Amino acid sequence: MPELPEVETIRSGLEPLLVHKTIADVCIRQAQLRYRIPADLAVCVSGQRITALQRRAKYLLLQVEKGTILIHLGMTGSLRYLSAAQAPERHDHLDFILDKGILRYRDPRRFGLVLWKPATEQGHRLLDKLGPEPLGDAFTSDYLVRKGEGSKRALKSFIMDNHVVVGVGNIYANEALFLARLHPLRPAGGLSQPEWEALHRHIIEVLQKAIKAGGTTIQDFVDGSGKPGYFQQQLLVYGRDKEPCTECGTILQKQVIGQRSSWFCPACQS
DNA sequence: CTTTAAACCTGGTCGC
DNA sequence: TGCGACCAGGTTTAAA
User: Fold this and answer.
1) Closest CA to A229 of A218, A211, A216
2) Which end of chain A is less enclosed by CB atoms within 10 A, N or C?
3) Long-range contact list for A53-56, CB < 8 A, 24+ apart?
4) What is the pLDDT, as a whole number, of residue A1?
């Protein structure tokens, strides 16, 4: 479900509600996610104060005094703060019971994860090999030029690869390529310097605009208080096969690239 | 090493 | 109405 803008929307909405609260207990109803939720999670985190809610790629990092709770929302995960008790529904797999309120994790498809990293351990296997943040200083067009050198991969697969840059999922990969007027099947190694610059700029721009709109809700994305995003109203190609291109009127095409549905304008993007 | 495909899981939609 | 096929904001793991 969530790409970077959706995770960032959740993070920024929840952080002020969570910081300074104390985790009283953890209630696990379904431990089997992408990885099993550690059975001793409650022991690890109970009694500790929350100091921050950070984000790395699409991971949420709930910082407490003695370590970090790693949370990933997979395709269908949501994380909501409830100020008053509310009966858990199907797929509400986990609750962090706070001194005031409840932080509730829901994930129908269970592609997400909740793991514990003690502060005593350096790094984490899921985080250590990730590429740069698209909205950070290390992500430059020169970096893309170097990284793309010699690669024959389809451009769309390339920019969705977490080793290249994190946070660019299927929606925003499609949108950024359209805005940069680049065909998703172009070999990554064949782009010119100005083409990389355009793509770099549009990846950043589309992510920033989506964050401003509170993310994109196609089916079930909701922010930390249960509200949907609004960026879907600004999507120019995602999900729009057989519709006319907003730039030139040509009918948009859909094609599966790297196992993911892809949409593009065959006239504008080359 | 690079690239592609299968796998994880549930639920909604579409066509017959 | 029922049922199977197909699709979905992601990522790891195995295989080519």
Assistant:
1) A216
2) C
3) A53/A11, A53/A14, A53/A15, A53/A18, A53/A19, A54/A11, A55/A4, A55/A7, A55/A8, A55/A11, A56/A127, A56/A130, A56/A133, A56/A166
4) 66
How far, in Å, is the CA of A109 from the C1' of nucleotide B11? Answer: 9
Residue A154: which nucleotide is closest by CA–C1'? Answer: B3
**In chain A, which residues from 199 to 258 place their CB closer than 7 Å to nucleic acid strand B?**
258
pLDDT digits (tens, 9 = 90+) for A22-60: 999 999 999 999 999 999 999 999 999 999 999 999 999
All residue ranges of chain A with pLDDT < 50 are: none
Domain A141-264 matching CATH 1.10.8.50: the answer reads: yes
pLDDT score of A42 = 98
Provide the positions of strand C that have an atom within 7 A of a protein CB.
7-12
The CATH T-level fold of domain A4-118 is N-terminal domain of MutM-like DNA repair proteins (3.20.190)
Residues of chain A with CATH 1.10.8.50: 141-264
User: Residue A220 has what pLDDT?
Assistant: 81
Q: How confident is the model over A6-22, as pLDDT tens digits?
A: 999 999 999 999 999 99
Nearest to A235 by CA among A189, A178, A154: A178
